[in-house]
Q: What sequence folds into this?
C-alpha cells in the first residue's frame, strides 16, 4: 500500500526505516517514529474501536495520553497482552499486533451496534432503574450484564515480563518537558540543584518542538529552533537526569510521587529479551515543578463522535510531527484562534483546508488575518448542527447562530463535504497532578479555566498548566516564577524578545444548539463512557445536583481516561442548566493514576516466591526429606503432618497422635515467639502484663501466663521461665510474637518508663525440639546420661541448662499435650543436629515426628486453648473457664479493670465448653452454629464450634465450643443444624483426657 | 506519603512508621478506683478531629521508639514532633 497520506516534511519520522505491524489481523506498515495512531491514519484507517455503551464506530481523536476512543488491545500472547492501551501512545515496532476492543465479531460489523438504535431505551441510570426488581433476578441479570461489560481482555497466563522499582531523591523534579519544563530543568540544573526531568513522550520539547511558524519567534529564532538549542544545552548539564516515556501516575503528600518509566514497550520482541519492561519510580523531591501543559477541549454538538472528527491540535500534530494527512477535505470548527494555527499549517503543506467554522462573530487577531489572506474561507457565527457518515465522516451540516448563541439566526442549513473535522474548544490546563497533591483550584472567568491557586507543598505550576497559553506569557511568567521558586538571581530567560499572535476575541458555548429536539441528539461529553449532554440534563431533571452525584449517575468522567476531554463541558452544562456559576459547581476529584498503570509495574519484583517473606526453621530440610506437608502460620512454614506412603491427612494425624501418647513424639517448636526480658524490674513488669503473679516464681521455674488487652480480652499466652533473679525468657504464640513484642515495648516506653526492663526478640536465635510421651524421659536420658531426670531434681514446670554433647541447651519440662514432655532449646545453628540426635535416640521407642495438626488434636484432648482459634478477641479468661490463672490479689495488670465491667461480668456470655456428639463417629465442623431447640423460629444461635477432632486416644469425636451460659449447661443436650441433617451433642467439661494430670508425671 | 522526622533517626519515609492513635491519654494509675464510665472513657473514647490532632507514632521499622506528633488532619501537615514524656506545647 502506498503512503499517499504522507507529506514529506517531518523531522521526527525516519522514512528510510519501514516498520510492519498488524491491526485487526491485517498487515500495515509505518515508519520509525510513528505511533500506532499516526501509522493507522497514514493507512487511511480511521475506524479503530467501538464505544462502550452504544457500540458506535469511533476513530482516533487526539495525539496523546488523553485519548478516549482509540484504545486497543496490544499483544496476542496469552501471557503478554495488554488491554486499554491508547493507540496514540503506542510506538510501533516490527511485529506489533494490536486489536480493536469492545466489538464482536469485528470492528466493522459489531452486533452490539444495535444498542445505538436502542439508545432511546438506554438513558443515564438505565441499569439502576431496570434491574432493580425483582431482587431475586439480580443474579441472572448480572451474568448477562457482565458478559457485555468491560473493555478489552485480561491476560490468561502469568506475565513473563520483568518489572522493577527504583527510589529517587532529588532537589527538583520537573514534570513535563515542553517549553516551560525545559526552561525549568535548565534553570535548576544550572544552579547546582540535583534535577530530574520526566516526560511521558519519547521526545523532549512538547508541542513547541514541531512549531514551525514565523508567527512564533523567541530571540529572533523560530520557537522550535530556539527550543532545540535549549535542549542541546540542557543535555550537557551534569546534575540532571532525563527520563522520557515516563508518566507520573500519582502525586502524594510531602512531594512523594510515583512514575512509570516505560523501557521496552516500543521495542520488538527480539530487542526486549531479558530486559526490564517497566519501572516504577518512587520519587521524593524537595521541590516539584509541574509543567504538564494543557489539553485541547472538544466542542459538544450533535453526533460529535464520528471517526474523522478530531481535535484541531491533533490534526496539526499528525501533519507537522508525523507528516500524516488526516483528511482530504479538512474543515476546522472552533471557538478560538487555535484552529487557525492548524489550518494555516496544513494549508502551507499543500493539504486541502476547505474552511473554518467559527462560533465567534469575528476576530482581528493576526493569525486569523493570515488565514483570511491565504484565502481560507471562514464561516463566522456558525455552528455544526449535525454530522453524517457511519464509519467515517462524510458531511457536516452548519447553521448560523443567533446573537446569544442559544439558537439560530435563520433556518438555513448548509451541508459541506468533509472527511476530517478538526474541533477546537479552547484549552484546559492539566491540573490533575496538582489536585492529586491536595492543591486547591480557582476558576478564571475570562477563559473559563480552572488554574492552581493554593499549593499544599513545595511545588509550582508553570506554563499552560498554570493557565499561561500565549508564548510571551509562558516565557515571561515561567522565568519570573522560576527565579522566585528556585531562589536564583539571574535567569537565561530575562529580556528575551518573543513574537507571538494574541487572541483578541473569546466566546464559549458548552453545549452548542441543535435544530433538533435534544432527546433526538447525541452530543457526546464523555466519549469513552458514551455520556451525552442529554444524560447530564436528565440527571439534573431527576434531582441530582452535586457534580459528584451527576458523575456517578451518568458515568461522565469515569472511564480509563477519567474524562480528560469532557469534564469541563459536563461542569459547564450543569452550571448553565442550573444557573449556578461555574466556579461554584466545583470539580470532581482526579485520582491516581493519571494514565492506567500495569499491575506488573505496581508489583515490581515482588512476584511468586518473592511476594511475601517466609520464614523456615533450622530443621526445615529434615521435614522436607521426611515427606512433611507444610502449613503457613503467619510468615512461618510449619510442618503440618508427615504422611507415610499413601496416608491421608486424617490417617497420618491419627497415627502421630496415638504414637505420641503410647510412646513418644517430637515436634519442631522453633517458631514459638521468644522474648528475652532482663532488668531489675523484670518481675514487676511480668506482674503487670500477665494476669497471674510472678514475683514468687523461683529461679529455674516455669509458669504459664495469659496476657489480656486493656479491654479484658485474651491477647496471647505462653510459658515464661525465670532464668535468673532479673532474667526471664517469655514464649508467645507463633503468630502473636511480633504484636506481643510491640505491645510490651509500647507499655515500657510510654506508660512505665520508670521500670528497669530490657526486651530483646530472640525468636530466630533459638531452635526448639519438643519431645513428649511416656518414653520421653528415657530418650532424654540417652541424650544426657548424667542429668538427673527425677521428679525431685527436674519436676514439671522447671528448667535446666545443660549440654547435649557440646551443644548448650536450655531444657524446659513443660507440656502442651498433657504428656510428660521436654522442650529443648539450642542456638539456632545447632537445630538440625539436635533434632537428628533426638530422632536417633528415640528410634528404639518409635519416636514419631508430628506436625501442627497433631499438636492441635493432642492439646484439644486436654482442653487447652489456642489463642486465635478458640478465642476471637471477645473472650475473657473467665469466659474460657480459666479463672485459675487470674490473680485476685494483684492490685493491677493489663485488662484487670475490664474484667469487672458490667458487660464482661454478664452470666450469659459465650463460655468455653466441651461437646460430645451422640454418634461418636460424627466429627463436627469448626465454625458450626449451636442451637438449643429443634425447629425454633426464629432460631437463636447459642454459640459455635471452635475446635473439632476425632480423638484416636479416646476413640470418639471431641470438640471445643463457645456457648452462651455454657458453664451451667453441663450434661445438656444441644443441636447443631447442618445443611443435610441435625447433629445432637452433649455439653461436657472441656478436659476430655487425664483430668488428674497423671500422664505429666508418667 | 509523609516524610517523618524521627527524633532519634531523622527524616524517614512513612512506610517505616506505624500510627498509634491519640496521644497524651495516660493509663489510670488506680484503675480499680474508677467507675465503669470513667474506665470506658479511658478505654474507648478517642477524638477524631478535623484539624490539629495530637498523635502517637512508632518508628516500627527503625529504632522502634515511640514519639508524639502534632498533625493537622485536614492537610496532613506535621506541625511538631517531640519525644515521649515531653509535654505538648501550649496553645
A:
Amino acid at each position: 500500500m502506498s503512503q499517499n497520506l504522507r507529506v514529506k516534511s517531518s523531522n521526527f519520522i525516519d522514512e528510510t526505516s519501514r516498520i510492519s505491524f498488524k491491526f485487526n489481523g491485517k498487515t500495515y506498515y509505518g515508519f520509525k517514529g510513528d505511533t500506532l495512531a499516526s501509522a493507522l491514519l497514514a493507512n487511511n484507517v480511521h475506524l479503530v474501536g467501538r464505544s462502550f455503551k452504544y457500540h458506535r464506530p469511533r476513530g482516533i481523536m487526539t495525539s496523546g495520553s488523553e485519548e478516549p476512543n482509540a484504545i486497543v488491545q496490544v499483544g496476542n500472547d496469552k501471557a503478554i497482552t495488554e488491554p486499554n492501551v491508547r493507540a496514540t501512545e503506542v510506538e510501533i515496532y516490527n511485529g506489533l499486533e494490536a486489536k480493536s476492543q469492545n466489538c464482536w465479531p469485528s470492528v466493522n460489523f459489531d452486533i452490539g451496534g444495535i444498542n445505538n438504535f436502542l439508545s432511546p431505551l438506554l438513558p443515564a441510570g438505565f441499569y439502576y432503574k431496570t434491574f432493580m426488581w425483582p431482587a431475586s433476578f439480580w443474579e441472572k441479570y448480572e451474568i448477562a450484564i457482565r458478559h457485555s461489560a468491560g473493555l478489552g481482555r485480561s491476560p490468561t497466563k502469568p506475565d513473563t515480563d520483568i518489572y522493577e522499582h527504583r527510589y529517587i531523591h532529588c532537589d527538583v523534579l520537573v514534570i513535563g518537558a515542553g517549553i516551560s519544563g525545559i526552561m525549568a530543568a535548565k534553570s535548576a540544573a544550572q544552579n547546582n540543584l540535583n534535577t530530574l526531568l520526566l516526560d511521558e513522550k519519547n521526545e523532549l520539547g512538547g508541542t513547541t518542538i514541531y512549531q514551525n511558524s514565523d508567527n512564533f519567534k523567541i530571540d529572533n529564532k523560530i520557537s522550535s529552533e530556539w527550543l532545540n538549542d535549549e535542549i542541546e544545552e540542557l543535555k550537557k548539564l551534569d546534575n540532571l537526569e532525563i527520563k522520557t516515556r515516563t508518566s507520573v501516575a500519582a502525586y502524594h503528600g510531602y512531594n512523594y510521587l510515583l512514575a512509570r518509566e516505560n523501557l521496552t514497550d516500543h521495542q520488538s520482541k527480539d530487542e526486549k529479551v531479558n530486559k526490564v519492561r517497566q519501572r516504577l519510580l518512587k520519587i521524593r523531591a524537595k521541590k516539584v515543578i509541574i509543567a504538564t501543559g494543557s489539553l485541547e477541549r472538544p466542542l459538544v454538538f450533535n453526533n460529535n463522535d464520528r471517526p474523522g472528527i478530531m481535535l484541531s491540535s491533533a490534526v496539526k500534530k499528525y501533519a507537522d510531527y508525523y507528516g500524516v494527512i488526516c483528511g482530504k477535505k479538512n474543515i476546522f470548527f472552533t471557538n478560538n484562534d487555535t484552529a487557525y494555527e492548524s489550518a494555516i499549517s496544513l494549508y502551507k503543506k499543500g493539504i486541502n483546508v476547505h474552511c473554518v467554522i467559527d462560533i465567534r462573530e469575528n476576530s482581528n487577531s493576526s493569525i486569523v488575518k493570515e488565514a483570511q489572506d491565504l484565502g481560507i474561507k471562514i464561516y463566522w457565527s456558525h455552528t455544526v448542527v449535525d454530522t453524517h457518515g457511519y464509519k467515517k465522516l462524510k458531511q457536516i451540516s452548519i447553521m448560523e447562530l443567533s446573537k446569544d448563541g442559544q439558537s439560530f439566526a435563520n433556518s438555513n442549513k448548509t451541508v459541506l463535504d468533509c472527511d476530517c473535522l478538526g474541533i477546537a474548544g479552547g484549552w484546559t490546563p492539566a491540573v490533575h497532578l496538582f489536585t492529586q497533591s491536595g492543591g486547591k483550584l480557582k476558576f478564571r472567568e475570562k477563559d473559563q479555566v480552572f488554574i492552581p491557586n493554593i499549593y499544599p507543598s513545595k511545588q509550582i505550576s508553570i506554563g499552560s498548566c498554570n493557565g499561561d497559553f500565549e508564548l510571551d506569557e509562558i516565557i515571561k511568567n515561567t522565568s519570573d516564577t522560576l527565579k522566585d521558586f528556585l531562589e536564583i538571581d539571574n535567569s537565561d530567560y530575562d529580556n528575551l524578545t518573543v513574537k507571538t499572535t494574541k487572541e483578541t476575541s473569546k466566546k464559549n458555548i458548552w453545549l452548542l444548539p441543535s435544530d433538533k429536539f435534544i432527546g433526538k441528539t447525541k452530543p457526546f461529553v464523555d466519549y469513552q463512557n458514551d455520556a451525552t449532554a442529554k444524560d447530564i440534563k436528565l440527571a439534573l431533571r431527576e434531582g441530582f445536583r452535586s457534580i459528584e452525584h451527576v458523575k456517578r449517575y451518568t458515568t461522565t468522567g469515569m472511564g480509563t481516561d477519567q474524562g480528560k476531554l469532557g469534564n469541563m463541558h459536563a461542569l459547564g452544562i450543569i452550571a448553565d442548566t442550573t444557573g449556578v456559576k461555574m466556579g461554584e459547581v466545583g470539580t470532581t476529584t482526579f485520582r491516581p493514576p493519571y494514565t492506567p498503570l500495569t499491575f506488573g509495574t505496581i508489583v515490581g519484583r515482588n512476584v511468586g516466591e518473592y511476594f511475601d517473606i517466609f520464614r523456615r526453621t533450622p530443621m526445615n530440610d529434615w521435614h522436607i526429606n521426611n515427606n512433611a506437608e507444610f502449613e503457613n502460620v503467619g510468615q512461618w512454614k510449619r510442618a503440618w503432618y508427615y504422611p507415610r506412603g499413601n496416608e491421608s491427612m486424617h490417617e497420618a494425624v491419627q497415627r502421630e497422635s496415638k504414637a505420641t501418647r503410647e510412646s513418644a513424639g517430637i515436634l519442631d517448636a522453633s517458631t514459638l515467639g521468644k522474648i528475652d526480658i532482663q532488668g531489675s524490674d523484670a518481675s514487676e513488669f511480668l506482674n503487670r502484663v500477665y494476669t497471674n503473679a510472678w514475683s514468687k516464681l523461683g529461679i529455674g521455674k516455669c509458669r504459664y501466663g495469659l496476657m489480656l488487652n486493656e479491654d479484658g480480652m485474651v491477647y496471647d499466652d505462653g510459658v515464661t521461665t525465670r532464668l535468673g533473679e532479673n532474667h526471664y525468657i517469655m514464649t508467645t504464640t507463633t503468630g502473636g510474637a511480633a504484636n506481643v513484642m510491640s505491645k510490651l515495648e509500647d507499655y515500657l516506653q510510654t506508660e512505665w518508663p520508670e521500670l528497669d526492663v530490657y526486651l530483646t526478640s530472640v525468636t530466630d536465635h533459638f531452635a526448639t525440639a519438643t519431645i513428649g510421651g511416656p518414653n520421653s524421659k528415657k530418650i532424654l536420658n540417652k541424650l544426657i546420661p548424667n542429668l538427673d531426670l527425677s521428679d525431685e531434681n527436674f519436676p514439671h514446670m522447671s528448667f535446666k541448662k545443660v549440654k547435649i554433647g557440646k551443644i548448650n541447651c536450655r531444657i524446659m519440662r513443660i507440656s502442651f499435650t498433657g504428656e510428660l514432655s521436654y522442650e529443648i532449646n539450642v542456638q539456632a545453628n545447632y537445630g538440625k543436629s539436635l533434632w537428628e540426635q533426638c530422632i536417633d535416640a528415640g528410634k528404639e521407642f518409635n519416636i514419631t515426628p508430628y506436625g501442627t495438626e497433631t499438636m492441635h488434636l493432642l492439646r484439644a484432648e486436654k482442653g487447652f486453648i489456642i489463642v486465635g482459634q478458640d478465642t476471637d478477641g471477645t473472650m475473657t479468661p473467665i469466659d474460657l473457664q480459666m479463672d485459675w490463672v487470674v490473680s485476685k490479689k494483684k492490685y493491677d495488670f493489663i485488662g484487670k479493670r475490664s474484667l469487672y465491667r458490667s458487660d464482661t461480668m454478664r452470666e450469659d456470655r459465650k463460655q468455653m465448653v466441651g461437646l460430645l456428639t451422640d454418634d461418636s463417629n460424627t466429627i463436627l465442623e469448626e465454625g458450626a452454629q449451636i442451637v438449643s431447640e429443634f425447629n425454633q423460629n426464629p432460631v437463636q444461635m447459642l454459640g459455635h464450634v471452635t475446635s473439632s477432632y476425632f480423638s484416636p486416644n479416646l476413640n470418639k469425636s471431641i470438640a471445643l465450643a463457645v456457648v452462651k451460659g455454657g458453664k451451667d449447661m453441663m450434661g445438656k443436650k444441644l443441636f447443631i443444624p447442618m445443611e443435610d441433617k441435625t447433629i445432637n451433642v452433649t455439653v461436657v467439661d472441656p478436659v476430655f483426657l487425664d483430668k488428674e494430670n497423671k500422664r505429666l508425671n508418667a | 506519603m509523609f516524610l517523618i522526622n524521627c527524633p532519634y533517626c531523622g527524616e524517614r519515609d512513612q512506610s517505616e512508621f506505624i500510627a498509634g492513635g491519640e496521644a497524651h491519654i495516660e493509663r489510670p494509675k488506680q484503675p480499680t478506683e474508677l467507675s465503669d464510665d470513667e474506665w470506658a472513657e479511658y478505654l474507648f473514647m478517642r477524638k477524631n478531629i478535623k484539624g490539629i490532632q495530637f498523635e502517637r507514632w512508632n518508628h516500627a521499622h527503625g529504632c522502634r521508639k515511640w514519639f508524639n506528633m502534632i498533625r493537622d488532619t485536614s492537610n496532613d501537615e506535621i506541625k511538631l514532633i517531640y519525644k515521649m514524656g515531653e509535654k505538648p506545647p501550649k496553645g
Remarks:
- The interface with chain B takes residues 252-256, 284, 438, 456, 710-711, 742, 745-746, 749-751, 753, 891-892, 896-898, 900-902 of chain A (CB under 8 Å).
- DSSP finds 23 helices and 50 strands in chain A.
- The domain at 295-426+504-585 of chain A is CATH 3.50.50.60 (FAD/NAD(P)-binding domain).
